[in-house]
């Protein structure tokens, strides 16, 4: 047996543990995120649940609530009519994305955040974070009668006036036309940042995009569960490089 096999086997044993620890309580490398999570003296409205341990600042939390958020110059009112309940869900989703330190298992390198392009400084994004069934259902129900003009919000907007406008020929129709199911809304709007989970709240197997602060953060345990079974992309890459290097030495 080659001399390097014991070393490779040890790496295979240790790396998943390292990965699990690395994926917990972290902020993604992104334009508006802090480098490490920590408490904030104050966060704005829908971002308050993360005040004790946040990846966002007060300024980011305030900007998340503006009708045309300077975070990405994206307007939810591109078709004019957006019901208050629908707007609230989107703000909660933005707060969740910008503030949560429990998205580590779903952080991936580069790519779009779901807007036209990856903003400057956007080194990482979240992919397929599993939202609880009720989160998607309530979001969809409260947005059914609001209006949009696209099912894919990733690109194809008219940015000539500095914010997103419906492209020529696109019709403003109820959300239910472009998003026939709750899963469509959860998954398509931000280009698969979220995934509609069949699991329900308090199952310990799905994430809540908002929670009552007094009841504690249920996403901590969910992140720990997924982190224990999925090495991070950085460590997976490290393992691959080490394996190739050891094979070369043989």
From TrEMBL:
<dbReference type="Pfam" id="PF03024">
    <property type="entry name" value="Folate_rec"/>
</dbReference>
<dbReference type="InterPro" id="IPR018143">
    <property type="entry name" value="Folate_rcpt-like"/>
</dbReference>
<dbReference type="GO" id="GO:0035036">
    <property type="term" value="P:sperm-egg recognition"/>
</dbReference>
<keyword id="KW-1015">Disulfide bond</keyword>
<keyword id="KW-0732">Signal</keyword>
<comment type="similarity">
    <text>Belongs to the folate receptor family.</text>
</comment>
<dbReference type="GO" id="GO:0007342">
    <property type="term" value="P:fusion of sperm to egg plasma membrane involved in single fertilization"/>
</dbReference>
<dbReference type="GO" id="GO:0038023">
    <property type="term" value="F:signaling receptor activity"/>
</dbReference>
<feature type="domain" description="Folate receptor-like">
    <location>
        <begin position="26"/>
        <end position="208"/>
    </location>
</feature>
<dbReference type="InterPro" id="IPR004269">
    <property type="entry name" value="Folate_rcpt"/>
</dbReference>
<protein>
    <recommendedName>
        <fullName>Folate receptor-like domain-containing protein</fullName>
    </recommendedName>
</protein>
<feature type="signal peptide">
    <location>
        <begin position="1"/>
        <end position="19"/>
    </location>
</feature>
<dbReference type="GO" id="GO:0007155">
    <property type="term" value="P:cell adhesion"/>
</dbReference>
<dbReference type="GO" id="GO:0009897">
    <property type="term" value="C:external side of plasma membrane"/>
</dbReference>
